[in-house]
Amino acid sequence: MSARIASHTSVLTRLLAERAQALETLAHTDFLTGLLNRRGMLTRLTEERNRLSRQNSSGALFAVLLIDLDHFKQVNDEHGHAAGDTVLVGVAEVLRRSVRDYDACARWGGEEFLIGLFCVRSAAELNAVVNKLMRAIRTAEFTHEGTPLHITWSVGAVLASAEEDIDSLLLRADTACYEAKKQGRNCAIVDAEGHSPLN
User: Fold this and answer.
1) Residues 75, 84: contact at Cβ < 8 Å?
2) 44-82: per-residue pLDDT in tens?
3) End-to-end Cα, the chain, rounded Å
4) Are 114 and 66 in contact (CB under 8 A)?
5) Which pLDDT does position 96 carry in this prediction?
6) Residue 59 and residue 90: Cα distance in Å, rounded?
7) For the CA atoms of 45, 51, 56, 62, what is the dihedral angle to 10 degrees?
8) d(CA 136, CA 98)
9) Which of 6, 22, 24, 80 has its CA 20 to 30 A from that of 138?
10) Among candidates 76, 83, 82, 107, which has minimal Cα distance to 94?
């Protein structure tokens, strides 16, 4: 009898742990795209910043890229919200394919996305990722009910050390993205000020 109770307790404990993990995943994941949501990305940025801070002897940097889809409202207005959802899901896939497995992508809100690049060695490396992203969206093909949808995006990318506050970093990314939009959209602004290439 005691063996059966212990076995039953073990099964219940495992099921509760699985349910808790599933709820944790839901709390940090965007339901439409499957990317991290804002809460999930803030958690991940904080974890990575703290990890880099503990390992500061390596001199590693990290980067944040804020991406805003250009004229996204027109997609919804002209083709409907289902078309907009198709674009958002497609953009999420473009982002997943464009970064390394240990980096992070999030739907930051509406038509905004955020990428965290962890362990970046130089401004040149960040520029290479930004160029890859710009090529990826320009060649991506999205269709909804047979209608092709052409999308561009504006990117604000910033390079930071582990000492920089997350809020400050996000503000810099937002400012850079706004500048990209001001310059005509479909472009990227990279703010790597004060961070020279590392050996």
Assistant:
1) yes
2) 999 999 888 887 656 678 999 999 999 999 999 999 999
3) 65
4) yes
5) 96
6) 35
7) -30
8) 8
9) 80
10) 107
User: CA–CA separation, 10 vs 6, rounded Å?
Assistant: 6
Task: Let me know: does 159 contact 173? Beta carbons within 8 Å.
Answer: no
Single pTM value for the model: 0.85
CA distance linking residue 75 with residue 8, whole number of Å:
53
Burial zone of 158 (CB within 10 Å; 0-12 exposed, 13-18 middle, 19+ buried) = buried
Of 24, 111, 112, 164, which one is the catalytic site residue?
111
In angstroms, rounded to a whole number, what is the distance separating the alpha carbons of residues 96 and 146?
24
Between vectors from CA 127 to CA 123 and to CA 128, what angle results, nearest 5°?
A: 120
Q: Which amino acid is at 133?
A: L
CA distance 66 to 68: 7
The alpha-helical segments, DSSP class H, found in the chain are 2-27, 38-54, 72-79, 81-98, 123-139, 166-182
pLDDT band with cut points at 50, 70 and 90 for residue 182: very high
Instruction: Please give the single-letter amino acid code of residue 32.
Output: L
Residue with tokens 């050996």, as numbered in its chain: 199
pLDDT of residue 197: 39
Taken in order 177, 170, 127, 107, is the CA torsion positive or negative?
Answer: negative
The predicted pLDDT at position 196 comes to 43
Residue 35, classified by CB atoms within 10 Å of its CB into exposed (0-12), middle (13-18) or buried (19+), is buried
Among this protein's residues, is 111 annotated catalytic? yes
